[in-house]
Amino acid sequence: MRNNEENELYMVKQAQSLRKRDPCAAKAWIITAKTLYPAAFNVQYEAYLFERDGKNYEEAAKCFSVIATNFPNQHTELWQEINALTNALRNESENTPEQEFFVKMYKHLTPDVQHNIFMHTINHCGDDLEQCICIYILMFKKFPKSVTTHAPRLLELLAEGMTTDPDLYQRILVEDVLPMIQHKPPELPPVLACRLYTNSLEYYLRQIMDSESEPTDPWKTIFKVLMLCGQMMGWEPFLPFSKQGSQNVYWEKLVDILSASPPGSSKVLFYATTLFIYSLHGYIRNCRLRIDDADVSHVLVEGFIEWAPDGDGSEDQTMEPPKFSLTTPISPDLSNAFLHAAQCWQLLNTDQFQRDFSQLMVALPLAPWISRFLFDLAIYFGHRDEANKLMGEMTTQSSLVQSLQILSLNLMQGSMTLQGFQCILKIIGELPATNGHLLENMTLKGHRHMVFLPLTRAALVQYCTGAIISRISRQVYEPNCSDRLLGDLLVLQQLNLLNDLRLTQQIFSVIKQRKSFNLRILSTYIIGIDLIEELSHIWNSQVEDSNFELTGSPTGVSSGGPASAGAPARRIGTRGADKGARDEFKTITRQQIARCNENIITLLANFITQEQLMLAQHIFGIQPVETIEIK
């Protein structure tokens, strides 16, 4: 035996010594050795090396097949070659010349040898989980039929890997493995299939949140993965994703599945969770809209309810959820997404799903979305205490948004606090650069409603103005309301004339009934033509025993600033008015009409800032003083 080994080694060394200077002689030694010792690894391996170094990939493949078939588990040298071969196959697009040789040699191996190479490699990966998974994937690419047999084990390994490096193995699962098994998904234990879906969903959600530009159709792919995992567990299929489809269709399908499923069904849990996150994403995404070439956020706030002294259109005190006002083109999409998310949230927080759903929410990267949604949900249902608590837990908000939300909570409770009024002043002081447009349907009759308010100058000033009007407008129907309150309401109503004609008519009705009325702010803040025409009519129709006074800027003095700025204002009235007073009134009205194209948003923002002390007196019931210093 020893002589045989010595002879083998002698022949191999002879071949090695002659390989470079006399390849023919070297090959003769190898052929002789193979003939005498066909079962010797050293001889067969040297024959392979001779062909490999000579770049004879076809002959090298024959020699490699002999070694791989007859000596699969015995020699380190063989595993080094197998590793080099599999590495070359994994990186075919970026191969070196040496690796290119292995790729060509592989093509000349028989299919059985090719497959055995992969299986032997998998079985000897040891603790190298990443390499084992990569070899499985490579084998599936080369032998698609092997997916049916080996996919369950690969998926188990991926689930194991996600406990140590979730980013890596989630990416491998989603980008490499799931596309391979989608046409013939294996049967999996429900726990494993649900875990894999959760990890896939987490991967896509991180992509959405980390990317400024969203991946192409992420929800189309997510719904495909949901259907695939459902097939693995034998679930009734959900609906495929469609951008054009109404979310009502998904909800109706979920209700049908729920009615036919046992309590706490995993199928309902995952279908409802997916629909919830889809609706939530649509809501959060649509809360930002492109306006005037800028990204503008929308904030859910309390709408205004038109009040009437006779009870017609009074505030609705029923427990029904509020409506959504169609204030902007995006309002329908926002409200639909929000309502569907709310429906799913309520279902998933019932006793049968709450524990499992809570665990899913911890596992998925949804905290920023969830905190925003829960706050809006509390506002929607009128849960003020819960909303205040949630606001304290939201740390990523701007001071502008926070001030707006505090103001909205004030309006929800039906009375404005000093904090709420301070929020109005903060909002006016932090107005954004984007102008935007005035909104419709901010004030409605008869029932509570919600508004998706864009953070633009126009919408914010309109909301602050509406908040002040909603708090002080009832005083118009009270006896002895002050002239100053009536005048300030007229200023504020310049944004709201068409939406609240009843209030404007009541203001003018009170003015006409008074024997004496003093409008001190005409030349500074009233530029609406309709208001000026009505004031002119009142001036011209005054009877002898009544007096209508107004304060105007002297001729030639700019009327663009507050009344106390610049030269002293002149007070003129109807009682005993001569031609000079009438001419002075005409001059003032012409001045105001000439200003009708001024920016009403800027004017009212200035009014709220400069007249804040008087407005606070109106809101909080303090007796107004004769003069107010404008700062």
TrEMBL record:
Residue numbers spanned by region Disordered: 552-581
Q: InterPro entries this protein is in?
A: ARM-type_fold (IPR016024), Int_cplx_su10 (IPR026164)
Bias kind Low complexity: ranges:
552-569
Recorded superkingdom: Eukaryota
The record's keywords, sorted A to Z, are: Nucleus
Q: What is its main location?
A: nucleus
Task: State a GO cellular component annotated for this protein.
Answer: integrator complex
Quick check: keyword Nucleus in the entry? yes
Task: List localization entries.
Answer: Nucleus
Can you cite a GO biological process for this protein?
snRNA processing
Family per record: Belongs to the Integrator subunit 10 family.
Q: What is this protein called?
A: Integrator complex subunit 10
- Which species is this UniProt entry from? Drosophila pseudoobscura pseudoobscura
Gene name as annotated: IntS10
